[in-house]
Amino acid sequence: MRILDAAADLLAEGGREALSTRAVSAAAGVQGPTIYRLFGDKRGLLDALATHGLTTYLRRKTKREPGDDPVADLRAGWDLHVGFGLANPALYALMYGDPRPGSPNPAALAAFEVLAGHIGRIARAGRLRVSEEHAAKLVHAAGSGTTLTLIGLPAAARDLKLSDLAREAVIAAITTDAPVPASTGPVGAAVALRAVLPETTALTKTEQSLLREWLDRIANDTP
User: Fold this and answer.
1) What percent of the chain shows pLDDT beyond 90?
2) Which CATH architecture has domain 2-59?
């Protein structure tokens, strides 16, 4: 869309301060009321811009088929996330630098869903040592914090070893080298069973819901 492309150019050149509705409408060659009609308000425009930027970036990347090792795929996803932030600092800050309690940016939510998919594959492989919810939130917090820290540094001072160290520390905290039922006791077993519960046909929906609640309680019973 022409308006979002124009807004993306202004954001890259001048940051969020450059994104006045007057500047965007002039750059896109439309009348100001058009922006309000399409996006509701400036917040709606910013949310749409973040989603548009993330979608465009991911579309340009070659789609990577899931590999045999879901933990390796998580590593690749982390590196892609950090790379996206460093390549698009203003857009990344728009997504993650201004959190709204209870109302996250739609683009950030979409990125979190991708992350949750990676975590789910690790759980189904029996290699997750904490609950899927805790794992996804920890990776998200560490990944976005690391990326924002790197963005805030002068380009010459950015050391990507920081990202590597943070990534490996998080992966070590949430995964195991071997399937968890044999190595980490009831918590690991609960996590693994919880991940494949939707595939069972032996239980009714009510029974699945009850078992899911029990497994969540066990999976979250960490020291």
Assistant:
1) 28
2) Orthogonal Bundle (1.10)
